[in-house]
């Protein structure tokens, strides 16, 4: 999840490479429980990579090498759109670590919502993200708005543009993170390099 004080451009490589490593680790562990090697056709990560290779191969065969730059550009931009939405959906929000070492169950207050009718219709209720995390089996048509969930000041299209400009993003969103936690930033997911400074700053402000 994106950390308070972390720009989208710092988050992007962290989430891309971290997600790949995490997906491979989780799939490797799943297969190991069944006594299987990760190098099997049952590996769902390899399924995804294989489908991409087949699609790209078919496009190159159909249209020639001229299509390669277009494939690379659309892949990079598509991935960046996915991750910028990931960035804005959880920016600065943290879950408590339990005595067991696991994190508390995801609840509506752990995701930023944007309850705007037109944008939600176009994005299949994606902006009601809090309900999706709290109730992952609920179909997108039935996702609900929670008044208690932190709210974005605008729809995803506007917030994506803000995220691309870190000073603007921080100016808009940092005060909202602080307000969500009532000034007590202990529970916020803060960029490690600035965590102590941020906690000290708001401890003084509260005290």
Describe this structure in words.
This protein is an all-alpha fold and 207 residues long. The chain has eight helices and no strands. Helix 3 packs across helix 6. The two termini are 29 Å apart.
Keywords:
207 residues; mainly alpha; 8 helices
Question: What is the arithmetic mean of pLDDT?
Answer: 86
Helix content range of the residues, please? 55-70%
Write the H/E string, N to C: HHHHHHHH
- Looking at the structure, what is the overall shape? globular
Q: Which structural category fits the helices and strands? A: mainly alpha
Query: How many strands appear in the DSSP assignment?
Result: 0
The first-to-last residue Cα distance is 29 Å
Number of continuous helical runs:
8
Largest sheet data? none
Query: Radius of gyration, Cα only, in angstroms?
Result: 20 Å
Q: Which blocks of ≥5 consecutive residues have pLDDT under 50? A: none
The proportion of residues in beta strands is: under 5%
């Amino acid at each position: 999840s994106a950390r308070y004080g972390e720009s989208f451009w710092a988050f992007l490589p962290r989430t891309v490479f971290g997600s790949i490593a995490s997906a491979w680790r989780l799939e490797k562990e799943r297969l190991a429980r069944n006594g299987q090697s990760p190098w099997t056709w049952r590996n769902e990560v390899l399924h995804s990579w294989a489908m991409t290779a087949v699609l790209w191969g078919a496009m190159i065969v159909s249209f020639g090498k001229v299509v390669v730059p277009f494939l690379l550009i659309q892949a990079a931009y598509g991935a960046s759109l996915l991750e910028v939405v990931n960035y804005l959906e959880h920016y600065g929000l943290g879950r408590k670590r339990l005595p067991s070492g696991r994190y508390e169950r995801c609840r509506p207050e752990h995701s930023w919502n944007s309850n705007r009718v037109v944008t939600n219709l176009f994005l299949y209720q994606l902006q009601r993200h809090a309900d999706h995390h709290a109730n992952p089996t609920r179909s997108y048509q039935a996702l609900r708005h929670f008044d208690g969930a932190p709210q974005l000041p605008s729809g995803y299209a506007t917030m994506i543009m803000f995220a691309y400009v870190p000073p603007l993003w921080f100016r808009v969103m940092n005060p909202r993170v602080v307000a969500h936690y009532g000034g007590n930033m202990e529970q916020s997911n803060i960029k490690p390099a600035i965590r102590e400074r941020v906690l000290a700053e708001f401890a003084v402000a509260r005290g």
